[in-house]
Specification:
It is built from 14 helices and 20 strands. The chain is an alpha/beta fold. The strands form 4 sheets. A 6-stranded mixed β-sheet has the order 1-2-3-4-5-6. A 6-stranded mixed β-sheet has the order 7-8-9-10-11-20, with no helix packed on it. A 6-stranded parallel β-sheet has the order 14-13-15-12-16-19, with helices on both faces. One of its GO terms (molecular function) is RNA endonuclease activity.
Length: about 450
């Protein structure tokens, strides 16, 4: 086996790895867009590596930094099958539509034609079942706990086993089954996003979120939550629903009518509907919730906004009103999308709170706001920051340092070699040192 990287090895975004077998044939694992400072280092989105011998594409999940270069890959001539989990196959069209609109075209006819081509290539496979994709090459997917449908891949070929972690999630994430380590790996390609950090437990995260909700009520302000349309938004809605339910049980009164929860993202609304269709893939806790609440991602004070006029009127309403509200909007790193308009209108108010629940890449406005600066430049405009800024790291959907160590050391036998990817230099270095202390060979 021979491993090559075409993105995601010198930063967090743009994941794309190629595994070549003794036959000369190979597979790609993910093909994502670069974001933040990674995008500035890789401004050319066209595929610059040869496609000779690449027989298949394996997708770990549908976040755009793992699948966003798929249109460019197919434009370059890739015509092989695309293997992924069943939930990923259902959600991929929404992400790909977004990726095409970002870099290719907004013409519906061309988007539909591309989607039809992708649909013909998709090969959804079940969890925990070995599947032969080439003569002498088998793959198996297991839950990664990152977003619904996420997986890590085991690849058996040439008498060896390679494991690609994709993005691993933290244990006890809402809606998601916890990742369990594989039995073994000769080669482990491991993400390292939070290789230098440890998250708070879920109970602490829930309490912090509840405290911010209560602060919003007391301040009669607006809490802005920049969030990815897929994964984070649905987890937050699930957690908020649980918090509202718990407060009502404890106090005997509902606070739902006292605060508006606004999801201002057409794409997030569409993903939420798909999440509801995929309830059979939810974890045991969520399955139990479904026995007494058949719509845990919906509640009476939740408003979803689709069209632009409604977005503008909501902005005006919140800017002039003293009624408390929580706004969930994209993009998650504040690089664009509707969240930017909320920041422009409300970031300079002391009654505003900004809550980060996802990873913020270097070079993004989200990272600058999170760092505690007094101002931030977004789309050429310098915005003063008077809002309170909070971070709840556990909802980032990435495993922390201890989770990653447990994933490696939890194997029946240690991996012969670990290659760290999907991380900045600092976290990668620290995680590598920690793994080396456990006798793991890291490069």
């Amino acid at each position: 086996m021979h491993l090559q990287h075409h993105g995601g090895h010198q930063g967090v975004t743009g994941s794309c790895h190629q595994l070549t077998f003794s036959s000369g044939k190979s597979v790609l694992v993910d093909c994502g867009l670069f974001q933040g400072s990674d995008a500035r280092r890789h401004p050319n989105l066209e595929i610059e590596f040869p496609l000779d011998g690449i027989e298949a594409l394996l997708l770990t999940h549908v976040h755009i930094d793992h699948v966003g270069r798929l249109p460019y890959l197919m434009a370059a001539g890739f015509d092989g099958p695309i293997y992924c989990t069943q939930p990923t196959a259902k959600m991929l069209p929404l992400t790909i539509e977004d990726a095409i609109k970002i870099g290719f075209t907004r013409k519906e006819r061309m988007i539909d034609a591309f989607q039809e081509t992708v649909a013909k290539r998709l090969r959804p496979i079940p969890y925990h079942v070995w599947t032969e994709i080439l003569p002498g090459v088998q793959i198996r997917v297991s839950p990664a706990g990152h977003i619904l449908g996420s997986c890590y891949f085991e690849i058996d070929a040439d008498g060896r086993r390679a494991v690609f972690s994709g993005d691993l999630g933290a244990p006890h994430a809402p809606l998601l089954k916890d990742p369990q380590p594989p039995e073994r790996a000769d080669l482990l390609v491991l993400e390292s996003t939070y290789g230098d950090k440890c998250h708070d437990g879920r109970e602490h995260r829930q309490q912090t979120l509840e405290n911010i909700l209560r602060k919003t009520l007391e301040d009669k302000g607006v809490t802005i939550i920049p969030a990815f349309s897929l994964g984070r938004t649905q987890e937050l809605l699930y957690e908020m629903n649980g918090i509202f339910e718990r407060i009502q049980q404890q106090s005997g009164r509902s606070i739902m009518k006292s605060v508006d929860v606004i999801v201002d993202s057409p794409l997030a609304s569409r993903f939420t509907k798909v999440y509801e269709d995929l309830q059979p893939f939810w974890d045991a806790e969520a399955q139990h919730v479904l026995t007494y609440d058949d719509q845990p991602l919906m509640f009476e004070n939740l408003t979803t906004i689709d069209d632009h006029d409604e977005h503008q009127s909501t902005l005006d309403y919140l800017a002039q009103s003293d009624l408390p509200a929580i706004v969930i909007a994209g993009s998650g790193m504040c690089t664009g999308g509707r969240v930017v308009n909320y920041l422009k209108r409300l970031l300079d108010r002391p009654t505003t709170d900004v809550l980060f629940v996802g990873y913020q890449s270097h070079g993004t406005p989200g990272r600058d706001i999170q760092a505690g600066r007094k101002s931030v430049r977004i789309h050429g405009e310098e915005l003063k920051i008077r809002a309170d800024v909070h971070t709840i790291s556990g909802y980032s959907a990435h495993a922390d340092q201890q989770n990653l160590i447990d994933f490696v050391t939890g194997m029946d036998s240690p991996p012969q070699e670990v290659v760290l990817v999907h991380g900045e230099d600092g976290p990668k270095k620290i995680l590598g040192e920690k793994l080396s202390e456990h006798g793991i060979n890291v490069r």
